[in-house]
Amino acid sequence: MSTTSINFGTIRELKQKAQARVEQLHGRGERGAYLYGADEKMLGGLNSFYLLVDRPEVYGLPPDPKLPSRNLKPGSLWSALGAVVIGVVGLISLRTRRTDDA
Amino acid sequence: MPSTFFTEPPHWRWLIILYFFFGGLAGGCYFVASMLDLMGRPSDRPLARLGYLLAFPTVVVCGILLIADLGRPERFWHMMLQSATWRPMLKTYSPMSLGAWGLLVFGGFAFLSFLGALADGGRRRPLAVLRPPGLIGTVVAVLGGLAGFFLVSYTGVLLAVTNRPIWSDTTLLGAVFLVSSASTSIALLLLLGSRRVFLVGGLRALQRFDMIVLVLELLTLAALVVSLGSLARVWLNAWGALLVLGVVGLGIVVPLLLHARARTPLSSEARAAAVLVLLGGFLLRVVIVLSSEAI
């Protein structure tokens, strides 16, 4: 039996429908109702969004999701810096010999 | 709570931990060997040769570990080739795809230097051109050394772009793995070279190198914890204890004290320090992988 809790359609139509439902709930006194992932603030907008009446964590959803790929550039740059530092330390350690070194 | 806590773990276990550790040793032994060849003295050549002889078999083990970890090991070649077009499967935005190619490219250079190192032992003299100081050998050592740096650090960047707690909550894991690879590889060369008295000059230089790298590792680990901010509290458990006591205490602080006490790199203190550095490097990868997997 379908509960109709999940709706399918074009994003634009679904957003209009969801916004109308939020306003309907607000009108009935459910002031905490809001849409999760429907606007562009969350990762540029999700193709699948939710109508919630509590914090996202309560539903097992991340409150502030971020794309992990944002770490690719800084992670690579830190690694490159590490390689340069190791190279310089190696150069100093291997070129600077004490008199008792062979 | 950070968004990484709402994700599913990739179930990476011992094969991946061993790959991270041996990958660090393969790339690290190679770039330390190439540094000895390019920046060291002629008397350091046997020590550099040891590094090349270790790097190639170790990177072969790495390939086997990665393939064994696949759900369908016989399909590993799909990482390298597109089955429909036979064109290279290379995704420049993916550390996993770049890493598969990096492993192959590094393996190629490691093989060339391995042949050069064998030739240096007197078996196939013409292949000795594959080692510095000649032009071909220098090009191989420089490019192979760069590929080695890539191999030891891309695994940390791969974790940083994997949406899990700790891993993608910092951008420093690539640098941490790189510095740890340097310290463990120098330690392995110190350990295996420590019974050859004629290598003592190069070993002394490597010992000084390892002491500075261990201090760098300590600083990099401190920066890693700071970069996690309040999330670092996830290590207020057995994993954190292993990180502090095993990785930092046994793997960095005690070896630094032992190296400082050791009168010569051939001494038992220096050998014990090298063993502990290797143990600490392994435990570092265990903590980084399994502490996130456990969340």
Q: Quick summary of this structure?
A:
The complex is a heterodimer of chains A (102) and B (295). Chain A has 102 residues and is mainly alpha-helical. Chain A has helices spanning 11-27, 72-95, and strands at 34-36, 50-52.
Q: What integer is the average pLDDT of chain B? A: 92
SSE class of chain B: mainly alpha
Question: What composes the largest sheet of chain A?
Answer: 2 strands, antiparallel
Strand content of chain A: 5-15%
> How many whole angstroms does the radius of gyration of chain A measure?
27 Å
**Largest contact between protein chains?**
A-B, 34 and 49 residues
Give, in order, the helices and strands of chain A: HEEH
Q: How far do the termini of chain B sit from each other?
A: 13 Å
Question: Helices and strands of chain A: which structural class?
Answer: mainly alpha
Assembly state:
heterodimer
**Which residue ranges of chain A are poorly predicted, with pLDDT under 50 across at least 5 consecutive positions?**
none
* Average pLDDT score of chain A: 85
Low-confidence region ranges of chain B: none
Number of strands of chain B: 0
Number of separate strands of chain A: 2
Residue share in β-strands of chain B:
under 5%
How would you sum up this structure, described in words?
The complex is a heterodimer of chains A (102) and B (295). Chain A is mainly alpha-helical and 102 residues long. Chain A has 2 helices and 2 strands; from the N terminus they run αββα. Chain A has a two-stranded antiparallel sheet with strand order 1-2. The longest helix of chain A has 24 residues, at 72-95. Chain B has 295 residues and is mainly α. Helices cover 69% and strands 0% of the residues of chain B. The longest helix of chain B is centred in the last third of the chain and has 29 residues, at 200-228. Chain A binds chain B through residues 57, 60-66, 68-69, 71-72, 74-76, 78-79, 81-83, 85-87, 89-91, 93-95, 97-98, 100-102, and chain B through 1-7, 31-32, 35-36, 39-41, 43-44, 93, 95, 149, 153-154, 156-157, 160-163, 168, 171-175, 178-179, 182, 198, 200-202, 204-206, 208-209, 212-213, 216, 220.
